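Escalated from tier 1: iron/sulfur cluster holo job.
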Amino acid sequence: MAKVPVAPMIDGLKVTFDNLFRPPTTIQFPEERRPEQARERGMPVLRSFPDTGECRCVACGLCEVVCPGHCLEVHAQPEGGDRRVRILEAYILDASHCLFCGYCAAACPVEAVVMSDIQDMAGFSRRNMIFDLQQLMELGRRFEPTYQATKGAVEFRLPDPDTESGRLLENKPLDLSEGPVERPTPVAVPVRSKSV
Ligand code: SF4
Ligand code: SF4
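Tier 2 regenerated the structure:
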């Protein structure tokens, strides 16, 4: 008769019982959220000037060039016949391709595109993942207070402990009342043409 491997069975059951009385590690997202980590990054957003509301982007196109996910499109129009003066016409982010790498923010010479802490961007179709200029600016306006508090380390948004808001952010408590970030209403956006 084959020998029953009792010792390994007991070892396995020990693990089962150990885990039976441990509190669950899962949480009820999005109602419950874990505290944000210092190096966490969300989607890129566009900043605007607080006084005029105009987008800071100067349409240089650097972010589009460096983007490894090919998910940015910058459409600009030369003004007054001068090629060097470019007016931003459209800015499109296809967040379904975004790697959250932060290259666009690092390349931007005027801190117009920055990495936010916004990560709630699930959608029911791929079109829901396309953000246009107005939507990115609206998200940028919401993110601006956090951006100001973390400006000391733009790339990773580490809280700046020299400012009051930075100190608060550093010890950011888990605020469940905040809930998910509200997305701007989707509007008609230009769709990129398929290259064949
Ligand atoms: S974070 Fe990276 S992948 Fe996403 S838009 Fe910027 S450069 Fe492209
Ligand atoms: S790099 Fe900055 S200024 Fe240049 S197109 Fe991108 S967002 Fe605009």
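The first strand starts at residue 44 and ends at 46.
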